[in-house]
Amino acid sequence: MRFIFADSLDMVDPGYDFLADRNAPGRKPYWDDVYPHEILDNPPYNGVLVSRGIVGGPQIKGKYTPGQAMRLRQVGVRAFLRLDEPQHVHMDLFGDCGAFTYVNEAVPPYQPSETAQYYEECGFTHGCSVDHIIFAFEEGARGMDGGDAEARRRFDVTLDNARAFLAEHRAIGARFTPMGVVQGWSPDSMAEAARRLVLMGYDYLAIGGMVPLKAAEIRLALGRIRDAIPSSIRMHVLGFAKADEIETFRPYRITSFDTTSPLLRAFKDGEQNYYLPGESGRLRYYTALRIPQSIENPRLMRLVKTGAFRAEDLTALEVRALRAVRAYDTGTAVLGDALSALMEYSAPLVVERPYSEAIQNIKLAKLAQQYRRTLEDRPWRACCCAICRAAGVEVIIFRASNRNKRRGMHNLAVYKSHIERLDLSCAANRPDDLFSHPRAAEC
Fold this sequence. Notes:
Structural class: alpha/beta
Helix content: 40-55%
Largest sheet: 8 strands, parallel, barrel
CATH topology of the largest domain: TIM Barrel
Number of strands: 12
Mean pLDDT: 93
Shape: globular
CATH architecture of the largest domain: Alpha-Beta Barrel
CATH superfamily of the largest domain: Queuine tRNA-ribosyltransferase-like
Order of helices and strands: EHEHHHEHEHEHEHEEHEEEHHHHHHEHHH
């Protein structure tokens, strides 16, 4: 299975000063910042997916600035992502329309013919047809039963667009691989959509609507789809991230999948922020140590405005927590001191009370257990990736974008290595040199 990273301009400043918490002097975003494949020793993915909804334009407001969107079209997606160096030219570049960004629209904002031209103009290696997402999932519906009027309308829109998209691809002699997107309200309706796409001429299908589904539901849908199409047809799963269960998807012969989950969980998950390899085909997860900037954190500033805390007291707690964690890492402080400093700063964040008044709080007690495990295991020392070598303990501190995204990029590397361990043919061809324990003895 090829792991395709769904990018959203996820970059970091390579010259960021962790102690002063500031960017490098004169930093120019995009031009000076680096992608995961630039900061790590090896690309932490097999390719990159760029959604039109992320790029944005007249139809949809995306994350790119107008200048960045223009540059993408001028120089092409490979140069824009800085994947045009010889060591990266083999990597796949997927494009899709970003159906989540226009889910509430009656029809997709993009035309099939124009979309095919966009993929070709930008130099994508693979391009998905224009789909309209269906969120319903009726597990028990048989054949084409079920599905409300809106789901059926979106089913037809997606297939009509796929037909027109493939016709335009052939008409312009496009070089990218066309991918027909499957949408449906049940496993059987998805299977029927896949069957029709194959009859149109597609030999690579992208399975949509998977993001909100549980692993068992995804397996059911993929099984029905596989039964309905020839074994030679390739399948890509859009928005798929079931890391701990991915081995169970091997029977469905998934060619590729995309996700941004390992990066996002670094700063959006409440507990599982830092990845390491585990046993029995699973990953180990650690909770990052939350030490936000006191004068910028909205919750803490609200407490200051209401008079519950003084700003200078919160800043003192923040500084003490940072110093204690760094001292623990260098061996000049014991675990108890670091944990105490963390919990004193965590209390206002978690329960909006001083730690002395909330020491028995259940939420704080659980957080203390998670922090103790992180501190005891020192997971940042167990990894030899370029990020952990350079950032050290800073990578486990939950604090602003440059730390959090670095941790996410580390997670991408662990995730890709995890996938390759499960794929023996890949593992045989690539030594696994990212991880050792302890790190200081090996790096």
